[in-house]
Amino acid sequence: MLEKIPLEAFRVFDAACRQMNFSRAGRELNITQAAVSRRIKGLEDHLGAPLFARRGRNLALTPEGERLFQRVRATLEYLEESLEPFRGGTSQLISIAASGSISHLWLGRRLKDFGKESPNISVRLLTTDTPSELASETNDLVILYSTGEHPRWNLTLLMKEVLVPIASPDYLAQRGLTGNALGTEAIARLDLIDYERFNAHWISFRQWFGRIPTPLKGNLPRPRLSFSTYIMAVEAALRGEGIALGSLGLIEDQLRSGALVTVGSDRVETGFGYYLGTPRFRSLSPEAAQLHQHLLASDEVEAGIQ
């Protein structure tokens, strides 16, 4: 009989995934970095698969680690929600659903800011790429990848999808390149980082090279790296591993900080975008309406900065 995996190992794994740093995970849990490493190693041994790719001081989830993290996070969120009836206080709970990419790259910081402004409102974030879960009417708010129409949700545009190649400044500097001076053919010869298309409307490099004003001629380049999620592709670009395809609205924080820069001048506007949704057939609670306004105001302020 297989030895049972200690539940504590999953709690440590969850913290390590969210922090992407064993030291910070240890500080969050009040244990040492060595203890975090031991628990992660024990979990990998139990499962027979590596969960993190270690590159010096940098961490990245392997495909197995990404799948496990999604399941562990969903389970912990479920347990957290189940405990709400047993807690005292006057905190109001609202739920919002969003895909993994916008949750990780855009929404997380804005929910943290909202929490500081409204400490008596608790927010449950459901992160999923399953359309039926995203659009479930059990949610108070949703962020949908859409053209702007949905039968059950009133949608307000947060950001249009505009796709452009992106890279870290270090990647370009090491090759003596200037990002805005690169043409399409030069970009195609670099280390392309792609991701799997789980939605027929998503666009990877193959489709992007065919939609730019002057489509690439000849055989389309094969990506050097391909990841199971868009987030992992962006993280690889941040680590300086090559050129990824960036959705400008999603990565505005990374562009503003200089961690990423755009490459070339070609852009593709897909006709899709990310929309903030409110229920069409029921009233919005005051707390959910407050979060709705916060997210729209945050987007308007930052649009004015650009």
Automatic annotation (TrEMBL):
Superkingdom of origin organism: Bacteria
Entries under InterPro entries matching the protein: LysR-type_TF_proteobact-type, LysR_HTH_N, LysR_subst-bd, WH-like_DNA-bd_sf, WH_DNA-bd_sf
Function: Transcriptional regulator of the ttuABCDE tartrate utilization operon.
Pfam families found in the cross-reference section: HTH_1, LysR_substrate
PANTHER family linked to this entry: HTH-TYPE TRANSCRIPTIONAL REGULATOR, HTH-TYPE TRANSCRIPTIONAL REGULATOR TRPI
Xref: Gene3D superfamilies: Periplasmic binding protein-like II, Winged helix-like DNA-binding domain superfamily/Winged helix DNA-binding domain
Record's keyword annotation contains Transcription regulation: yes
Keyword Transcription: yes
GO molecular function: DNA-binding transcription factor activity; sequence-specific DNA binding
Record family assignment: Belongs to the LysR transcriptional regulatory family.
An example Gene Ontology biological process: DNA-templated transcription
Annotated HTH lysR-type domain residues: 5-62
Protein name in UniProt: HTH-type transcriptional regulator TtuA
Keywords: DNA-binding, Transcription, Transcription regulation
